[in-house]
Amino acid sequence: MGLEKICQEVIEIAKAAGAFIAGERTSFDLKLVEIKGKANFVSYVDKKAEEMIVDRLRKLLPDSGFITEEGTAFDSGEKFRWVIDPLDGTTNFIHGAPPYAVSIGLMEADEIVLGVVYEITKDECFYAWKGGKSMLNGREIKVSEASTTEESLIVTGFPYGEVKNSDAFIDTIKHLMVHSHGIRRLGSAATDLSYVAAGRFEAFWETGLSPWDVAAGILILQLAGGKVSDFHGGDNFLFGGQIVATNKNYFNEFQSLIENNYCK
Ligand code: 2AM
Ligand code: CA
Fold first, then answer.
1. Could you tell me if 132 and 154 lie in one domain?
2. Within this chain, do residues 34 and 113 fall inside the same structural domain, yes or no?
């Protein structure tokens, strides 16, 4: 089966999980939430959604491995590996605030070859496969043309219990507060990357993320014409926990700003 066909199937799987999550939201009970650590809620909804997704992906591509947030399936070192966050933006979900998304990426060896981000609250499905284009609900998307901070709206996520980078974070915020159109914090990294891909934001950066938060969104952004790196401008952005993601024209200025602040 080709990647385009697989992508169509994955879209259906992401939407089915999204429908389950949306249904659960209407009757969500905070008492059922386990608290795994500070600011790190895991709910039965995340787990159930992941099981639904894994079950269908196993049938779609037998012998594939899994890297998933809830650990309901495992990476067995196969050639194809699914990288899944069944609910990216769990804290938003728990509080009933948008956005939250299903994020499903597929890796072939070390390369991301397919990505689907289904943002549930706006019913927006972003997707891309290697050799194709980036799409949103059936229409092609492209990054914006802006090339300077002065023309840019920036999105980020707040560091989680992390003290070591907080000065760099604050310095970056201070600079952008003065010079950019503004700063947003949506609470779903998969959605942040998809919005840069769609030209809604010019740039995104964050620390401490896991591969399942970003895998699908990275490919969607790259195939929409955007650029992704780690804070040094290198390639360790999927597993390295540091990501800079921008449109094409703004990359050099923004990546330099982040490198100067974080890599002193
Ligand atoms: P999640 O909702 O799947 O956990 C928001 O800035 C991003 O950070 C989201 O993609 C969110 O994914 C992730 N996130 C939330 N809590 C986190 C934590 N405690 N540690 C690391 N990442 C977290
Ligand atoms: Ca999650």
1. no
2. yes
Question: Which CATH number do you get for residue 64?
Answer: 3.30.540.10
**Structural element, H or E, at residue 31:** none
Distance 2 CA to ligand 1 centre (A): 32
Q: Which segments within the chain are labelled E, that is strand?
A: 34-37, 40-42, 65-68, 80-88, 101-108, 111-119, 124-129, 135-136, 139-140, 153-156, 182-184, 203-207, 227-229, 242-246
Mutate which of 83, 103, 209 for ligand 1? The one with the most ligand atoms within 8 Å of its CB, which is: 209
159 C-beta closer than 6 A to ligand 1: no
Q: Are residues 104 and 53 in contact, defined by beta-carbon separation less than 8 angstroms?
A: yes
**Ligand number, closest to the Cα atom of 93:** 1
Question: Domain boundary at 117, 140, 163, which?
Answer: 140
Q: How far is the CA of 158 from the centre of ligand 1 (A)?
A: 9
pLDDT tens across 68-116, in order?
998 888 777 678 999 999 999 999 998 899 999 999 999 999 999 999 9
* pLDDT (tens digit per residue) in 218-231: 999 999 999 999 99
Using the atom order of ligand 1, give the atom closest to the CA of residue 93: 2
Interval between CA 63 and ligand 2 midpoint (Å) = 24
Q: List all residues 6 or more positions away from 29 whose beta carbon is below 8 Å from its beta carbon.
A: none
- What is the domain-level CATH number for residue 224? 3.40.190.80
- Domain final position from 140, 174, 209: 140
Distance CA(116)–CA(102), nearest Å, equals 8
Rounded CA-CA distance 8/60 in Å is 11
